[in-house]
Specification:
- It contains 5 helices and 7 strands.
- It is α+β, with helices and mostly antiparallel strands.
- It has a 7-stranded mixed β-sheet, with helices on both faces.
Length: 175
């Protein structure tokens, strides 16, 4: 099944929707993983995916949220941070793909492809010459997805999840 997604910019009045979608997709992605501490996951989601937090993030001048819908139903979203260089990089012309998550029931429909394609087009149209992201070291499915899009691992970074420190791989690609 092809996604038939409609991708649009998210607005401030989407904060509640993004909080719910973010919490659901992040939880679906990691809750069942045996190396994911459940209490820390819950703590992180309680902080990161509130309407108030999404309102703050949507208000950031560097932030760009994309919301993908299929048949009017929210299916996936992405968050880009403009002019955000990767750690250790001197380039000021990079953009960070901070989040790209889809509802489990839409995985395999091409929604991830459509959303990534749009993210890369947005980055290029904004004049960025590179995209970077971080992905949990124990998330091989996401790593494989990014490698298909020509992202290469270039280091590691610590990520605080609740009270735990996780290791993420840094991945980047040129546009």
């Amino acid at each position: 099944m092809k996604s038939q997604a409609i991708i649009r910019y998210a607005a401030l009045d989407d904060a509640r929707l993004l909080a719910r979608l973010g919490r659901e997709t992040f939880g679906e992605a990691f809750a069942a993983h045996p190396l994911m501490p459940a209490d820390d996951l819950r703590l992180y989601m309680d902080e990161a995916f509130t309407t108030e937090q999404m309102t703050r993030e949507l208000s950031e001048s560097k932030a760009l949220f994309l919301l993908a819908e299929i048949s009017g139903e929210p299916a996936a979203y992405a968050k880009l941070l403009k002019n955000t260089p990767a750690p250790g990089s001197e380039s000021k012309n990079q953009i960070k793909l901070q989040r790209l998550y889809a509802e489990q029931k839409f995985l395999g429909t091409g929604i991830g492809h459509d959303l990534m394609d749009r993210c890369l087009r947005e980055a290029a149209q904004s004049g960025h010459d590179g995209v970077w992201l971080s992905v949990w070291e124990h998330n091989p499915r996401a790593q494989a997805f990014y490698r298909k899009w020509k992202f290469e691992t270039c280091g590691t970074i610590d990520f605080r999840l609740g009270n735990s420190i996780m290791t993420d791989f840094l991945m980047k690609r040129e546009i």
